[in-house]
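We store chain and fold; example below:
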Amino acid sequence: MPRLLALVFLVLVWGACSAVTDNLNRYLLLRIPLPVTLTLLQFGISACCGYLLLPVLGKRPSAALASVTFSQSLPLIISQALGFLATNVSFGLSSVSLTHTIKASKARWLDSSA
C-alpha cells in the first residue's frame, strides 16, 4: 500500500508540475515568440540543475559515452529534442489543452504503428 501511495503522489506532483510549466511556456511564447530559444534554455537549465544535483544525491558524473553508444542513441536524442521543440512551438500556436490532448494521444498512434 505505501508504494501505491508513493506512486499516486508522484503522479500528482508530475501532473501539477506539467500544468505549471506548460502554462508558463504558453505565457512566455505569447510574449516572446522564440520557441527554439526557449527549448535550448530549458535544456540548458535542466542539464545544469541535474549536474548540480549529483553531489546532493551522492552521485558522480558517469564516464563519457562510448562512440558506439552515442551513435546508437543519436536518433532517440534527435527525436526527443524535436518533439520537445514541436511542443513548445504548438504552445505558441494553440491552446495548452489542445497540445495536451494531442500529446496524450501519441501513445495510441505509436502503438498502432508498431
Observations:
- The CA atoms of residues 87 and 99 lie 7 Å apart.
